[in-house]
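Before a colleague's protein record goes any further, I have to sign it off. Alongside the sequence sits a line of tokens, each denoting a local backbone shape. I want your independent view on whether this chain really folds as the tokens say. Where you disagree with what is written, explain briefly why. This is what I was given:
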Amino acid sequence: MNRYIIAVYVENKYGVLARVTGLIMRKGFNIDSLTVGETDDPAYSRITITLQGDDYAREQMVNQLKKLYNVKNVTLLDRENTVERELTMIKINNTPANRAEVMAAAEIYRAKIIDYSVNTLCVEITGEPSKINAFINVMKPLGIVEMCRTGAVALERTRAITEE
């Protein structure tokens, strides 16, 4: 099974997201992550979907999405030529025993402490999913109280123009 990132440009209208996710559900896929946001043109939104499947399933999904009403464009992003990021906020137990370790790990992973209380620290981290997963694994033994993770957002890298 491979992981795929699909960008779907849709009209920014009521019910479009439900149609897109309904199609994915009917085809029996599990969405790993889904993010939606308005584009530079407020009439359109971009849905970024990550899911797993084989090559046949991937092609079927892209073709079915293209047929949906209100869908303007569907792009399968090449993982080698894509910039992908996530945002995660993690609330961690704040004890004298683990405070220095949380702060050191936050510095190493370029995370930010965005809230501090007597009982908890809230840390924000952005980056590639593998970086987020690694940071979560470091924080687990320190006592994760609560966690909120966005889905992936991704853009194709700009290809270099070569002169011939």
Observations:
- The first helix runs from residue 16 to 26.
- The beta strands are 2-11, 31-38, 44-53, 71-77, 82-93, 112-116, 120-127, 144-149, 153-156.
- DSSP finds four helices and nine strands in the chain.
- The first strand starts at residue 2 and ends at 11.
